[in-house]
Amino acid sequence: MKKLSLIVAALGFFAAAAHAEPATYSVDPSHTFASWEIAHFNTSTNRGRFNKTTGSVTLDKAAKTGSLDVTVDTTSLDTGTAAFTKHISSDEMLNVAAFPAAHLVASKFVFNGDKVSEIDGNLTLMGKTNPVVLKATNFNCYMSPMVKREVCGGDFDMMITRSQFGVSYGLNYGFPDTMRVVIQVEAVKQ
Fold this sequence. Notes:
By secondary structure, the chain is mainly beta. It contains two helices and eleven strands. It has one domain: Beta Barrel (Lipocalin). It has helices at about 1-20, 80-90, and strands at about 25, 35-40, 45-50, 55-60, 65-75, 75-80, 100-110, 115-125, 130-145, 150-160, 180-190. The protein is elongated, with a radius of gyration of 20 Å. Keywords: Signal.
């Protein structure tokens, strides 16, 4: 009888899991940043990050689907050096006065087992939208002891061709057209 009860309970659990609803997660701005890096005359690597990011992620673990809508405040650029930040923010590069936000939207999530391994979407930067592929170098969900809710996130890498977005400064000096963008994200289940 006890064995039968366990089997019925297990079947009920799996039936409930199979009919799980998609969950919505809000981006945690204190754990979510977009950073970039680009070679500097093939000698060192220039890096910077954007300190303000907002958005949401919808994840259906049972169906292995998801979507995201994330906005990066480009005026929050921080390179660690005021003069360099000002130069990157200028109309020669990102023109953050005219384009104060970058927007990432995706509706195709690729899973490897129960973990997100890739996200395909579109990035809008400087008024131009192009497809991008974000590769998960880390993905995990956990019960946060701080907020007492599930948190999902990871590190997501993508390579972009900056001239496709109108950022061509330095190409004639030999700076590469491709650059690496990493988005570290944690999002809290709502």
